Each structure stands twice: as structure tokens, then as C-alpha cells.
Amino acid sequence: MGFALSQIGLETSRQFGEVMGTLGLEPRHFAVLHAVQRDEDQTQQAIGDLLAIPASTMVAIVDHLEGEGLIERRPHVSDRRARILHVTKRGETLLAEAMAEAMVQEARICVGLGANERAQLLALLARISLNLGVSSSALPDRGSGNRPQTI
Amino acid sequence: MGFALSQIGLETSRQFGEVMGTLGLEPRHFAVLHAVQRDEDQTQQAIGDLLAIPASTMVAIVDHLEGEGLIERRPHVSDRRARILHVTKRGETLLAEAMAEAMVQEARICVGLGANERAQLLALLARISLNLGVSSSALPDRGSGNRPQTI
DNA sequence: TATTGTTATACTCTATAACTATA
DNA sequence: TATAGTTATAGAGTATAACAATA
Questions:
Q1: In chain A, residues 130 through 149 whose Cβ sits under 7 angstroms from any atom of nucleic acid strand C
Q2: Which nucleotide is nearest to A148 (CA to C1')?
Q3: Over the stretch B128-143, which tens digit does the pLDDT of each residue have?
């Protein structure tokens, strides 16, 4: 069981990386882009903390996303040290495409499974998650959660 | 679903690494040790190919295992370039302990699941594996299989 | 000339610690 | 003095390519 889970998990995340690659994104870029859209107008550090990404790594990721015109760094109204992250129109568009691709992958993973089989599997996985102590927080790829981990 | 699978797989393999760590093994060491026991008296390269581990990495892993007295490099009868890998008595003992620990982890993962729920989950995961194209070959941790991958 | 194992090297990735500008 | 973001740096990990012995 442990072997199957780890094998499947690795392959799932590998294929997800491939899919994102077709859109010019790495999983980390997608994760940050998604988090920035969800928690609109948060500080760069706040987003980094949320995903357990160290500050110096965040710089590189945000640099990339900003270079692609997908997000903007905006000044913080009251703290001139901080930067507010904001998804651009182009970022929203790409994120929508990325989500669509993710749905396609989702469908590919579950091909041949009926609706109740899928529900059954999800329920069993939820119990496994509890046993493993993974908190169902955060975003695609990588657990982040509460452990000292990163993207 | 994809997120859950990748999250669970990552955590499973992380915890497996922790468990192996208590025995002084990294997952890669366990994988090679296990493979050497299963495919007794194979060439170092043959084992490496089996696990998709590049030759130079194999050297380091086998160095470690030999340094711990868990396996031996023996001369090949007909090819003096090649080395035959052989599990020592001590290696067998440690491997048995490692397998026992793996069983404990297995039990921890499946706590609260009845026998038929476990079977159900395994069956569903097998179908997911097919959808993902993972061949159920190889050894614990990491997919290896046929893709250009490594430990 | 090709192949096994080894060594050396270059590359990527990541985190730690210094640095600046603000607070 | 502490903090947000940045930059520089060092460390680990991995693969690629050169190398020696043998086929």
C-alpha cells in the first residue's frame, strides 16, 4: 500500500508538472499564482508563509511571474517595505487555462471510474490522510501544511 | 483527487524515509539492498539498471552499503571488470528489520480500515496506476519503472 | 572498439546568511 | 531594534563526461 501510494503520488505530480510545462509554468509558479488569486492582495511574505516557501525562493518565483506579466508587485499602502501581490488580467487568463488543464488531468486519472467509485476512493484517501497526519490545507503539489517543508 | 494523491504519496515516502533513518538507511540504500537480495548475485550495473540508478550514483550507494558491512562486492567469475553484489549476514538481518518497520508503517497508514476496505482501496489504486501508466515493477519508494528516472 | 566500474566535474536547487530600506 | 524584500553564497544532490582495466 505504502509503495503504491508513493509511486502514484510521484507520478501524479510528475504528470502535473508536465501539464503545467505546456503553459510555461512550473508547479511552484502555478501554486503561487493560484494562492495570490485566492488570497487577493496579500504581502509577498504572507503568500510565502502560506505555502511554506522561504523568502529568497519567493523572490525568484515572483520575479518569474512578474516577468511573464502574470502578477504585479504593488506598493503596500502603509508599509513601504512590503509588496502586495496582485494577479494581472493575463495572469487570470493563464490561471484559468491551467485550471482547465488540471481538470483534464483529473479526468485522465479517474478514467473508467464511476461517480461513486470516485467518491469512495476520495473517502478512503481522506482517512489515509488523517492516519498520515496531513492537513488538507494549501495548494496543488507538495504538502506544505505545517511541516518545515517547501514547494 | 490529483492533489490528494500527490500529497499523500509525498507524505508516505517522507515518513518511510524517516522510518528507514532510524535504521541508518536512506530509502535508496534500502531499495538497493532489497534489490540485491531479491536478484541475488547480479552485477552492480544490472541492479542499477533495474532501479534506473545511474552508474556513478550506484558507486556511492554501494560504497555506503559495503562500508556498513551490509553487502559485499565479489568478483565476477568470467568478467574481471564486473562486480557481483551479495548481501551479507548482517545485511540480511538489517533488511529483515527494515521490512518489519515497513510493515509497521503499512499498518499505521491503514489504521481503522477493515480488510475489505483495504482491498477495495488497493483495487482502486491499481486502476489509477493503469490510468497513470505506472508499471507495478520495481521496489519501495519512487517509481523508477521504465521512465528516465532515478532513485 | 566497447563495456564495467570509478572518479572528477559541472549543474541545479535550495536554504542561510548578509544587506537595504523602511518601521 | 526588528522586519520585508533582495542579493550573495554555500551546501547538497545529481547527472555527464573523462578514465582505467578488461573484454
A1: 149
A2: C15
A3: 999 999 876 544 333 3
* pLDDT tens digits for range B84-128: 999 999 999 999 999 999 999 999 999 999 999 999 999 999 999
| Amino acid of residue A111 | V
Chain B positions with Cβ closer than 8 Å to A: 1-13, 15-16, 102, 105-106, 108-113, 117-118, 120-122, 124-129, 131-134, 136, 139-143
**Chain A residue closest in CA terms to B130:** A109
DSSP B38-105: HTTT-BHHHHHHHTT--HHHHHHHHHHHHHTTSEEEEE-SS-TT-EEEEE-HHHHHHHHHHHHHHHHH
Alpha-helical regions (H) of chain A: 2-21, 27-38, 44-51, 55-67, 89-109, 115-132
Q: Residue A135: what pLDDT?
A: 77
* Cell numbers found for residue B63: 560504497
Question: What does the alpha-carbon distance between residue B146 and residue B125 come to, in Å, rounded to a whole number?
Answer: 19
Percentage above 70 pLDDT, chain A? 89
Q: Under an 8 A CB cutoff, do A15 and B132 touch?
A: yes
